[in-house]
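Progress narrative, Year 2. Work on Periplasmic tungstate binding protein from Thauera aromatica K172 advanced from sequence curation to structure prediction during this period.
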Amino acid sequence: MQPIRFIRHQLARLAAGTALTLLSCAALAQAAPAIVVASTTSTEQSGLFGHLLPRFTQATGIEVKVVALGTGQALDIGRRGDADVVFVHDEAAEKKFVAEGHGVDHRKVMYNDFVLVGPAGDPAATRGKDITGALQKLATANAAFVSRGDKSGTHAAELRYWKAAGVDDKGSGYKECGCGMGPALNMAASAGAYVLADRGTWLSFKNRADLAVLVEGDTRLFNQYGVMVVNPERHPHVKAAEARKFVDWVVSDEGQATIASYQIGGEQLFFPNAER
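Result:
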């Protein structure tokens, strides 16, 4: 009988230990809420989120899972209610998203700019400050150009610039990759092609090969980022309280200072300009 009593005792101890472990896990889950942020690839691939999000979690105890896609896809995730926050960079699309009732608490957060990147030798002679003039030259020269073609904020900006340049036929060298900013830059580097990039991802990009910034400084290249909560009235499962804490934090003094402090090689990638 002694062995049987011993086994029963051990099983009872194991069951008690398991129950305590489950209770501890449940308590931890309650103590560490998490939100999903659907965002543009540039905030992820530039390294900004790796710098920003741990500080947000430290300040609030809220964990963040990022789904990094083009802005159009990120907004679609918000429309479906598959995210709690949307953090993107296409003001027209963001305003439409809010007007249609998909988002609330829309705020400006930060900005940088777009740049036209291409072979350092610049065979199409695009170098300068005029983005529309540069695109006209690319089309005329049938120069190799990699477009993201993914409905991202960068892609939307690129299409605006082609339209402003009055270019319908972009030339035989124009190719859409349907990819993020990093892969588009990799394709341009390997093919010696031109590409429109956000400066943040460009500064963090290591595989530059012969690429260089050729067009910058045009006021039309301004690149604004915005953040908003997915509307909990449309999607009751949205973690609205935690999502609002995220929005409030990134536009707070601490959040804005954290954004401003992110640098690569001594260069600041994003410039805070929150509306509070």
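The CA atoms of residues 132 and 253 lie 37 Å apart. The longest strand covers residues 103-119.
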